[in-house]
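Audit log entry. Action: structure prediction of a protein-small molecule complex. Ligand: pyridoxal-5'-phosphate. The ligand was supplied as SMILES and no pocket hint was given, so placement is left entirely to the predictor. Protonation state taken as written. Sequence taken verbatim from the request; no trimming, no tag removal. Recorded inputs:
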Amino acid sequence: MSLPITQSQIPPDIIDLGAGEPHQSVFPLHMIHLAAEERFSQGDSSFLQYGAEQGDGYFRLALAKFLSRGYGLPMNPESIFITAGISSALDLLCTLFTQAGDTIFVEETTYFVAPKIFADHHLNIVPIAMDENGLMIESLEENLKRSKPKFLYTIPIHHNPTGSTLTDVRRTRLNELAQEFDFLILADEVYQLLSYTDDSPKPFAAYTGGGAENIISLGSFSKIIAPGLRLGWIQAQPQRIKRLVTSGLLDSGGGMNPFTSAIVRSAVDCGDLEKHVHHLIETYRPRLQKMDLLLRQHFPSITYTTPKGGYFFWLRLPRQMNAIKLRQQAKTFKVDFRQGGIFSSTGGSQNYMRLCFAHYDEEHIEEGILRLKECLKGR
Ligand SMILES: Cc1ncc(COP(=O)(O)O)c(C=O)c1O
């Protein structure tokens, strides 16, 4: 009998091109081993104590330096709050900044589990339309005429599931609107450091060291080290961070994940994390290119915009195809994907599918795409 360790398990005979988590083969076990060894050899057990509410100060310093290099902009450790990952950060932000019945704006479509967190807080979701350049400002303006949101949840770069990135012009206008209508921007920047071209816009996090009161940037180690660490960070104006730090949760339990923070700090300080992120980029870029090539070759009737980072392709199927039915049929061809509908809060995107290019190596990507082609034959 085997007992569960991981959240999901892909049957060995299936190629699941929908899987959105890193493959176990890219987890840097050796890097974590060395980092833990270094930390344990210091003879200082303070990381086993209840942690400082904002997060281990040395870790925040190391993280600020790491992010400054990664983002190419100075990051302030005083604007960083350590979290147990983006999911838990979203939950805390909902607890502190919303009440049941409040309205929030969420992109249509979005990271499919975020709305479940918002539902736990009984929030009223208003969808904001998107196109290939991220959320549409006209849709935002239209909805602001009708309702006042507590926050907008957006994935501004290498979006999950659409792969889109919000343009600079839209970012500027979004910031202006957030100030004018007084709502928070929760910018989920989980894929910011996984950019495979040199033309990424600077993150919303760049504005948090100064006076941008409305911006809260969410970062995570889930995709650049491993989800099992349950470690991430919030960047926000120091005044906003103060509200997080004084919450009952932090007062009682202390800062989040001091033990893991201390180990990851060692990996950051010695430069290993930077090397690892570089390695991931060099691993994922050819996977993206491979999937792009195969899609063009084998699915001429499917349309999409090639992503420039992150994990995902968002494919628009010919109108007559229903992704739910297709997914059922795909099982018999030993291949899987995610149907577009699960990313919609309005029942839309029925003729879309999300494929992940990051999970498998090129060989498996090719085999998976060929299986998908067989499944789509004659439809
Ligand atoms: C857009 C987005 N946000 C958040 C997460 C989850 O982040 P975490 O593991 O830090 O909770 C994911 C994971 O797939 C994601 O795609």
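Audit: result stored. The radius of gyration is 21 Å. The mean pLDDT is 96.
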